[in-house]
Design brief:
The complex is a heterodimer of chains A (336) and B (354). Chain A is mainly alpha-helical and 336 residues long. Chain A has 13 helices and four strands. In chain A, strand 2 and strand 3 form a beta hairpin. In chain B, helix 2 runs parallel beside helix 8, helix 2 packs across helix 14 and helix 3 packs across helix 11. The chains are: A mainly alpha (336), B mainly alpha (354).
Chain lengths: 336, 354
């Protein structure tokens, strides 16, 4: 028995930076194509903001898949529910939202967002217990069950709120844009950008710097080993699922304010978008999901500016291109 | 027995039900010549074939595809565009078929080769994305597809409702172009279902079952699973496209709502699960139950909703409104996935749920 002296730090895991650089490269490559610098800045900020919102909605889906091997086809329902719950606060207090003071506006926005997150999270608890618990480990049934859940949720929203589109105007102080030189940047997009960065940083910090995060990452790698070490991974599952649902609810409110309207079909429409993002990023990877969301938003914005007709299928083309390059998505986390 | 490919219903009650449904469908133009009854009967025929083809994917190979309406839509639009552009002639119908079927087949091949290598979950997501892109394309390329309005067209002379072949006085019922179209739909659907029954009971179908149960093991036995899955995907796509063509012929119209929308995909899923996955017969039962419920239960719900509104109950009128019937079907769907994964057919056959 010879002592093996631990010299130096452990070898660092290999860093894979190419995917992370993709959005930057894409944005820079667009400068000569778009020509005017001011429209480039506007478009870039728009795509960053849109990307952040998509990321917030999609992050829960990818985490849930990575940790629990459950693909929730009903994830869009949480988005729609969040948006509707948001209107419950925003519409009755419209006078506050229309007041020309940032503080009053935020005083309405904050409870709306918190309530939306709470309700979506609570709904997540119910869905996990009722729909997903009986079918762990059975992909086919999971897809069917959660699709059924999406149908029921959408119809229930129709039944409770009616089939009409609900207009949801932005609070006054978030309307309009900052104008710097000849560059116009919408205020709300800046807020979305900030919020997205906060959520991304928070998720990264929790995953990489806390014990819970360590357990979640370990669970993604090898569930049985974590269980064998005495941790109740079911509780962890539930917590992640509720957090993911709550984030979807937050994204729902943000998206509704971005579009300035709410409709029960939004969950269904956004499901496709967030699926594409999650596939591009690699199922289970939060970082990949972040990059995927940015890429999808950039392609949508730049594509819509340069070749409007192409924007219809640009997401699919992007997904095909990425999957040709990396068949398991940008960052494949799990071996599944 | 030959016709059923050696795979009889294996349950007396089920056989009786099937005979009843087929007889009712066969005699609909004679017994219930009204427009609504004919529409319901046609929808049952077309959807029985469509759902049976979906069952080949879902029930026999265990892959969930959300792109089935895309193939259905390709069939519908191929007929509609051909008849719209070339005028009402049999040559137009033939060219619609000649363009639509290979197109559906090629697309199925491309999707299959591209995404069937991976897990069922991946395939489900990719098909969902592709199908939604196709829906957007169909509603945006208005020079070709007519956009949101879709394309209406005239049928060839023989199939016109006004064409009377045998007058009412001769047989007691009128054999006109509409009835002829109905029997065209009926025969074609029956042929497709029998053909699918043949497919699933062939050695090829057995391999599909093996792949569903354990893909790794099937591969270890020497079967090229990607080839088999892609093949099954192509067959399902062809049948779906044919069903779409029949639908377009019956409606004399093809549009995004009648042939491509996500709600049709939901209908198909509900039918296949309620009827029974992996049985083919389940498609007939599921389509019949679902379509009858859709057309006649809604009236009942309307009555219940009005009654609840009159009684001044809160919330109930909204929940019971006829437009919300999918809510109840969705709940039924979840319950049947959970409690009766083998559907009506599985129950009647008395197989223990797995």
């Amino acid at each position: 028995m010879s002592d093996v002296a631990a010299t130096g730090a452990l070898p660092k895991p290999k860093r894979d930076l190419i995917p992370a650089l993709l959005p930057v490269i894409l944005a820079l490559a667009m400068i000569p194509l778009i020509g005017s610098g001011s429209s480039w800045v506007t478009l870039t900020v728009a795509s960053l903001a849109m990307g952040m919102m998509i990321f917030i909605m999609a992050s829960g889906l990818t985490l849930v898949f990575g940790l629990m091997d459950v693909l929730n086809f009903g994830h869009g329902a949480f988005i729609a529910v969040g948006a509707y719950v948001g209107t419950l606060v925003l519409l009755p207090l419209a006078s506050f939202a229309q007041a020309d003071s940032l503080l009053t506006n935020l005083a309405v926005l904050a409870p709306a967002v918190l309530l939306a997150m709470a309700v979506s999270g609570a709904l997540g608890l119910v869905v996990e217990r009722v729909l997903i618990l009986p079918v762990y480990g059975q992909h086919l049934k999971q897809i069917l069950m959660t699709t059924g859940g999406l149908i029921v949720a959408e119809q229930a929203l129709y039944a409770l709120w009616g089939p009409q589109i609900i207009p949801l105007p932005l609070p006054t102080s978030l309307r309009g844009s900052f104008i710097i030189g000849d560059v116009a940047i919408a205020k709300y997009r800046l807020l979305a950008l900030l919020l997205g960065l906060v959520v991304f940083t928070a998720i990264q910090l929790v995953l990489n710097r806390t014990k819970i995060g360590l357990l979640i990452r370990a669970g993604v790698e090898n569930r049985e080993m974590v269980e064998a070490l005495g941790y109740r991974i079911r509780r962890l599952f539930l917590g992640v699922f509720m957090t993911g649902s709550a984030l979807a609810g937050l994204g729902g409110v943000m998206w509704a304010l971005y579009r300035e309207q709410v409709h029960a079909s939004m969950g269904n429409d956004l499901t496709v978008l967030i699926f594409i993002v999650v596939i591009i990023g690699g199922l289970g990877s939060v970082g990949g999901c972040f990059i995927g969301a940015l890429l999808v938003a950039m392609v949508a914005n730049y594509g819509g500016f340069l070749v409007p007709k192409l924007a219809l299928v640009s997401n699919i083309l992007l997904m095909v291109a990425i999957l040709m390059w990396r068949p398991r998505g940008l960052y494949a986390v799990t071996s599944r | 027995m030959m016709m059923l490919s050696g795979d009889p219903p294996r349950s007396r009650l089920l056989s009786a039900l099937l005979v009843l449904i087929v007889l009712a469908l066969l005699l609909t133009p004679i017994l219930f010549p009204g427009a609504k009854a004919m529409n319901v009967a046609t929808k049952i025929c077309i959807f029985a074939a469509l759902v049976a083809s979906y069952d080949l994917l879902l029930g026999y190979t265990g892959t969930v595809s959300f792109a089935h309406t895309m193939f259905y839509g390709i069939g519908s639009y191929a007929i509609a565009i051909a008849l719209y552009a070339m005028g009402p002639s049999w040559a137009a119908v033939a060219s619609g078929v000649a363009i639509g079927l290979p197109l559906a087949m090629l697309l199925a091949l491309a999707i299959g080769l591209f995404s069937l290598r991976v897990e069922a979950i991946f395939f489900a997501m990719i098909t969902l994305a592709v199908a939604s892109a196709f829906l957007v394309l169909a509603s945006q390329l208005s020079w070709l597809t007519g956009g949101e309005d879709g394309r209406s067209f005239q049928l060839p002379e023989l199939l016109h409702p006004g064409t009377v072949l045998i007058a009412k006085s001769a047989l007691g019922f009128e054999l006109n172009g509409r009835v002829l179209t109905y029997y065209l739909v009926f025969t074609a659907s029956a042929a497709m279902i029998l053909g699918l029954l043949r497919v699933v009971n062939s050695p090829f179908g057995r391999v599909l079952l093996a792949i569903r149960e354990n893909r790794f093991r099937a591969e270890a036995l020497g079967f090229r699973t990607v080839f088999h899955l892609t093949y099954a995907n192509c067959i399902a796509a062809l049948v779906a496209a044919c069903a779409g063509m029949l639908n377009a012929l019956w409606l004399r119209y093809a549009g995004p709502d009648t042939s491509l929308s996500f709600s049709i995909m939901v209908d198909i899923l509900l039918m296949v699960v309620i009827g029974g996955m992996g049985t083919i017969y389940g498609a007939i039962i599921g389509a019949a139950i679902f379509t009858l419920a859709q057309n006649y239960l809604q009236a009942l719900m309307g009555a219940a909703s009005t009654a609840a509104a009159d009684a001044g109950l809160p919330l109930l009128p909204g929940l019971l409104h006829p437009d919300r019937w999918l809510l109840w079907l969705g709940l039924l769907f979840i319950a049947s996935v959970y409690f009766f994964p083998t559907g009506v057919v599985g129950r009647l056959r008395g197989t223990a749920p797995k």
